[in-house]
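Input record (Table S2, row 184):
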Amino acid sequence: MKTESPPKSLAITWFADSPDAGPGCCCSLCGDPIIDVPIRMWSLDGELMTADDEPDEARFHATCFTRISYAFTGVGRERQSIIPNTYIVVNGMGLPLRWQDDLSGQLPAAIKAFLSWKPGMAPLDSRLLRLVIDYLVHYIDAPCWNGNFVPEMANLRLRAGQLETAQDVRDWLADCLDIALDPL
Ligand SMILES: [Zn+2]
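Output record (zinc ion complex):
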């Protein structure tokens, strides 16, 4: 019987160069060389930045990109969640639903429990934590964030799907604040 190895955590490596396909063109997801045409994603407008700026090209095997395209589009993530996969359209932008508007009360209760949790306390009830994480996945996948802070957003979206503990969530929220996002 074949044993499945646990899935490797997903992260995107950004590069400061843009080599032609070949041995020197490593995939931003799996790290292997890209021999066929890479799919290239840019942090800004397709121009490589000057040396003192952040690396700003990510490139992928087509199959690798398929796995994580939601990090750039907010669309297509596999998820099982009670949070509706719908967004509030305002001026053509898709904004996340507000957790305060959940009339069932389940999500507000979960988020309030999370907000009163502090490191060192007993672990948060796993069902409540799951609801919080499901909401954060909904929030970070909102199309209104596309095109802003592209590298940071891509990695926040990937990490949102890998959050497991209340501490993970706290760390992730702190990284959201770095780009002025305050999901809760
Ligand atoms: Zn790859």
